[in-house]
Amino acid sequence: MGANEHGVCIGNEAVWGREEVCGAEALLGMDLVRLGLERADTAEKALTVIVDLLEKYGQGGNCMESHMAFTYHNSFLIADRKEAWVLETSGKHWAAEKVEGGVRNISNQLSITTKIDREHPEMKEYAKSKGWWDGEKEFDFAATYSYVNTARMTTSRSRYCEGYKLLNKHKGAITSETMMEILRDKESGINMEGGFMTTGSMVSVLPQDPNLPCIHFFTGTPDPARSVFKPFIFVPGITELLKTSSPTFGPDDPVKKQPRFQSKPDRRHELYKKHESAAVVMETMKGKGKEMLEEIQTLEKRKMREMKSILQNGCPDTNQLVNLFSQCVDEELKIYG
């Protein structure tokens, strides 16, 4: 997931379906997120960038730094100040739905049904040739390209369904705090634990008024229930965020060598390491852990108040915002000691 200086935000999820996933090296969903953000200044342009790259290079390859292959197709939630799109893929075929209102979420299943606003030109013909669609009944992308019963999609206990319920519960009154609360929810499976734990979380506020800045909150650490959502605003003069940047290994990086993944370097950044130790304290040392959790919650609330003031009263001197995120990281590190 990520955002760019034009207020374009993209989130990405793994999806599977009838089409076999390509194991050969191609573009990963994470590559497509980065390239969409690098090259587009609107949500729909980002969608176009992604589907053009998909057509030219395809998607596939191992998504884990491991000998164990983990491959998938991709879905994307793409938004800017004015509009939002859901893009879902199966191999090189894809469908896109423009979000016209209400709430929308994605998870580990195809979710676009009959409302298709843009599509791969051969999407329907390919489905017909495979015997997935008879060419007569209304075309339903999720039902055709996956094994999902779309009539029951929002009533199952899946992460998609649970996310949909939580968003609908707050529909019409969703704030950044609401979104953070949803991302912290463990019972729904949205905040994942174990082998596939939630490794980072992001919430973005995209005001329709172009005079107000887009504000992005990033944890940069796993388990949002024990993390600080730290504010970031794109302004000129921002330097590299060293304490939350993974170390680089240049030409010696194992991912750049053939065969791939022969060793696994430590990619944890400074905040990640300190947070990992702090999470153990929060889990095992009742008194000290509770105190630490309260301190990071107080820090987050203070930053939220500061950002609300910016959205209500306009932006202060942009020089004050250059170190907004990194100062919050320093304050968080200080709490971890």
From TrEMBL:
Gene Ontology MF terms in the entry: cysteine-type exopeptidase activity; dipeptidase activity
InterPro entries cross-referenced by the UniProt entry: Peptidase_C69
Recorded superkingdom: Eukaryota
Pfam families on file: Peptidase_C69 (PF03577)
Gene Ontology terms: biological process: proteolysis
PANTHER family associated with the record: SECERNIN, SECERNIN-3
Entry's family note: Belongs to the peptidase C69 family. Secernin subfamily.
Protein name (record): Secernin 3
Native species: Meleagris gallopavo (Wild turkey)
Lineage: Eukaryota, Metazoa, Chordata, Craniata, Vertebrata
Gene: SCRN3
